Fold:
Amino acid sequence: MAVAAHARRVVFLTGGTGYLGSRLIPHLLRRGHVVRAMARRSSVARLPPGCDVLTGDVLDRAALQDALAGCDTIIQLIGTPKPAPWKGAQFRAVDRPSGLASIEAARNTHIAHFVYVSVAHPAPIMRDYIAVRSECEAAIRAAGLPATIIRPWYILGPGHWWPLLLKPSYWICEQIRAMRASALRLGLVTIHQTLGTLLWAVEHPPESVRIIEVPEIRSLGGWPL
Structure:
């Protein structure tokens, strides 16, 4: 479905071969947006067809900045697959430098809209992950970038279904007044809801920094794919 009510965006996407990126790119293209993605030579073949492909390393700040020329939106999706409490070293080695490199490049090229997939917090069990994502959120604000920061907790989808076993516990916690806010903030969202939220964000850029938490992700998930 081509974009009708909203302007066509020129989107640079990091993490285009990943769990979210590989699913998001076809939807962006179907809605009429131009998508540019960068991947290392060994991964280029895994990018969905139809996007403008650049070969390179997104941790190379100079190359990243050159790649953003002519784009109005950047979606930062690079991150450690299947985040877990014991992956702190990977968060600091991958998530942190890729996020900060994208933010710096966006600031230097005056990108109109930075879209960042962060994580719901606070949640002590994921301390290292949240610390890195919070640092990147702070860097976005310090850079003065108009941005959408999306904070899911766990995204249900292919290969990521096991938390469905927790749904009865979530329901119980949502009925208890003292636990309801935390249960909603750290609730489960689906891949469909997350992709819908990302599409909505791209087509509705904010003037400053906008935060989208789990309840709103669930609501915006009805955005047509």
About this structure: The helical segments are 21-30, 61-67, 88-108, 127-143, 167-175, 177-185, 191-203, 214-220. The chain has a mean pLDDT of 88.
